[in-house]
Amino acid sequence: MVKSNRRKFIVTAAGLAATTVVNGTPNMDTEKGNIAHQVYFWLKNPGSEEDRELLIKGIKTLRQIDSVQKLTIGIVAATEKRSVIDDSWGVSELALFKDLAGQAAYQIHPIHLDFVKNYSHLWSKVVIYDSLEV
């Protein structure tokens, strides 16, 4: 009796796992996959609350761009110190786009160009990671 229940469980679990894999197969079309645009800013004056708040205010204007599906802004979290964590930056931006075309439109949008023009004096370094959802 125990073997029968165990066998039934294994067969059922395998079937559910296979269904999950088939239904969860990612869209491999690189033209249409969701894009995450992750930007990390190092402030010229890292101790200046005023500069940090001004940069955050500027990043918020990017939410007005039509192709931005979602935009979140962050500051360094007070998590435990580990060798794999880089906490040297000051402000981050995460913008999500439906596809590569939306991300490309964002780059040349007047609001984005104004943001760079009006706020770039606040940062000493910017690092960007763009990723395609798989």
UniProtKB/TrEMBL annotation:
It comes from Daejeonella lutea. Coiled coil: none annotated. SUPFAM superfamilies: Dimeric alpha+beta barrel. Transmembrane segments: none annotated. This is Stress responsive A/B Barrel Domain. Residues 35-131 form the Stress-response A/B barrel domain. InterPro entries: Dabb, Dimeric_a/b-barrel.
